[in-house]
Amino acid sequence: MSFLQEYDSISTNDPSAQAAFVIKWLRGNPTAMFDELRADRPIFINPVFTMVVRATDVLDILSQHQLFSVRLNAKSMDPAVGPFMLARDETELNWHEKSIMRAVLRHDDLPRLKAFVGSIVTSELSTSEGGLDVVARISRLVPLRIVQSFFGFAAPDELMLKWSFATQHAMFRNLGGDPVVERACIDAGVEMRNWLWPFLAAKWADPGLSDDTPVDRLIRLSRNCDLAIATDRVVSNVCGLLVGAIETMSQAIVQSLEQLLQRNDVLPAAIKAAKDLGSDDIHSYALEALRFNPITAMQIRYAERDCQLGVGTPYATKITRGSRIAACTGPAMFDEGLFREASAFKVDRPRESYLHLGFGHHECLGKYVALVAIPETVRHLLSMPGIRRAAGDSGKIDFAGGPFPEHFSIEWDQAKLQ
Ligand code: HEM
User: Cα dist. 179→25, 202, 298 in Å?
Assistant: First the structure.
């Protein structure tokens, strides 16, 4: 039976069974579920949320942030990191703080970032003989070092990884609203802010602060009364640099690499692109690979008013105020209206069509950091001679029952390196 046949056979008087069934498919076989919904029920109201899977409707939702707001994010974000831009729409907080954060995440840092990422990856590869676990050695380490050394939020490794895991898990992967996951997020956020206060206070107390990291730029800017960014707002935004960066980039590196390594028809060209230091074609390979296994397939929104979705289509659907909406960017990237020959792996697509980093008012703040760090990491890994997935289960992504990749092993021909 297909997903919809089985779902429709569940009694409408049993919303818990319907919800459990939707979550089971989302975790187990989202691609088949999304394909069927895109073809047969593009707006699918169920007890978990209203899923919207066609590109036009997804873009419609993400473009109307006053109608489809991010207010639901406040439940996990506010107690953990304080009020934050991704839980506020069209507010002074969002307008003001996103501008300041964009100003400190400077474009002219990107060439240095690229070299920094390259140095981390090559150092790890040079101390490994013929293979490694990408998650344990590379994919978490790259964003961890970016946050510590490049952004300038320099807490100990163990704490940062714990804070990052707990906050990302509750804020973006806790569909069932597990209270244990929520509690761990709040505890991590409070601990992170408590760690940050004295760290940042020492910087505020230093009139000669001269490092050129985004955190130090933020401290210097916060002293300017025209910018009027209060100290607690600095703390929340520094937290955001960590929450947004580590597990997201780790997962993107692993999933994009795995897709490339498992496609024999694409891999030789991807390796050629990786080794061509004069071109950035590897970016297109990484973005396209991620389309086949995106790190996040949906953005959650809240309907602020009664309205209609799919206006003018046969599937136009009334949405009631207070509905939880899942704007499914993952399946939208397989909509022929946005991605021609969507099932084919093509690297000549416009890069701005991809929805990996969100769309509209809440488009990712770390977009350009991610768009440098992910392909650059993939480039170095694909450049190893005879690069391949490790044999057996260790060459498959292992989530170890959790929300993020924990293991994924690769191998190469060590002898050819000599
Ligand atoms: C692979 C890496 C990344 C992915 C896939 C990713 C994905 C996303 C997505 C999909 C959104 C939109 C969420 C929504 O509309 O509900 C978003 C927003 C955001 N991201 Fe990222 N992100 C990544 C890296 C980063 C990094 C490195 C940072 C930190 C510099 C960051 C910080 C943020 C922030 C602060 C927002 C909220 C922006 C706003 O509300 O206006 N992200 N990200």
Answer: 22, 35, 21
Does residue 418 register a pLDDT over 70?
Answer: no
Same domain (yes/no): 30, 169: no
Q: Which residues contact 80 (CB under 8 A, 6 or more apart)?
A: 167, 170, 171, 185, 186, 188, 189, 190, 239
Tokens of 174: 């806790």
Tell me how far the alpha carbon of residue 241 lies from the centroid of ligand 1, in angstroms. 9
Q: State whether 124 and 207 are in the same domain.
A: yes
Q: Region 123-144: what's the mean pLDDT?
A: 97
CB of 364 shorter than 6 A to ligand 1: yes
Could you identify the residue written with the tokens 């895991």? 165
Nearest CA to ligand 1 atom 2: 249
Q: 18: domain range?
A: 1-41
Structural domain count, the chain = 2
C-beta 241 within 6 A of ligand 1: yes
Residues 80 and 226 placed together within one structural domain of the fold: yes
Q: Taking Cα atoms as reference points, which of 158, 161, 242 lies closest to residue 196?
A: 242
Please tell me whether residue 9 adopts helix, strand or coil conformation: coil
Q: Would you put residue 178 in left (φ > 0), alpha (ψ -120 to 50) or beta? A: beta
CATH number at residue 348: 1.10.630.10
On whether both 1 and 114 belong to a single domain, the answer is no
Does ligand 1 come within 6 angstroms of the Cβ of 362?
Answer: yes
Give residue 357 CA to ligand 1 midpoint distance, Å.
6
Do 79 and 211 share a domain, yes or no? yes
> Euclidean distance between the first and final Cα of the chain, in Å?
54
Residue 180 phi, psi dihedral angles, 5° rounding: -70, -40
CA distance linking residue 120 with residue 113, whole number of Å = 11
* Per-residue three-class SS string for 239-285: HHHHHHHHHHHHHHHHHHHHHHHCCCCCHHHHHHHHHCCCCCHHHHH
State the distance from the centre of ligand 1 to the C-alpha of 418, rounded, in angstroms.
40
Question: Could you read off the pLDDT of 268-306 as tens digits, one per residue?
Answer: 999 999 999 999 999 999 999 999 999 999 999 999 999
6 and 82 housed in the same domain: no
Pair (155, 125) in one structural domain: yes
Burial of 280 (0-12, 13-18, 19+ CB in 10 A): middle
Laid out side by side, the sheet with 299-303 consists of: 43-45, 50-52, 324-327, 299-303, 68-69
For residues 211 and 319, membership in a common domain is answered with: yes
